[in-house]
Amino acid sequence: MPSSVISTMSYDAATATLRITFVSGMIYDYKNVPEEIYHALKTSGAKGIYLNQHIKGRYPFEKIK
């Protein structure tokens, strides 16, 4: 299901890094994210809500752009 907040997302299993590109164009890498969290986000019906409840504030991040 499309998100009004998230434009694209990808996951690098080798580094456990979740990359989120927001509709605004901002890009964030969330570190040490378990693969099952990525899959849950990917299949969530409300990706923005899932991101806020299960990822933001729980995993270190780096602003890319």
- Count of individual beta strands: 4
Number of separate helices: 2
Mean pLDDT value = 94
Count of all domains: 1
- Rg, alpha carbons: 11 Å
Report on the architecture of this protein:
With 65 residues, the protein is α+β, with helices and mostly antiparallel strands. The chain has one domain (6-63). The protein is 26% helix and 31% strand. The chain has 2 helices and 4 strands; from the N terminus they run E-E-E-H-H-E. It has a 4-stranded antiparallel beta sheet with strand order 1-2-3-4, with helices on one face. Helix 1 packs antiparallel against helix 2 (47-54). The N and C termini lie far apart (25 Å).
List keywords for this structure.
single chain; 65 residues; alpha+beta; 4-stranded antiparallel sheet; 2 helices; 4 strands
In short:
The protein has 65 residues and is of the alpha+beta class. Helices cover 26% and strands 31% of the residues.
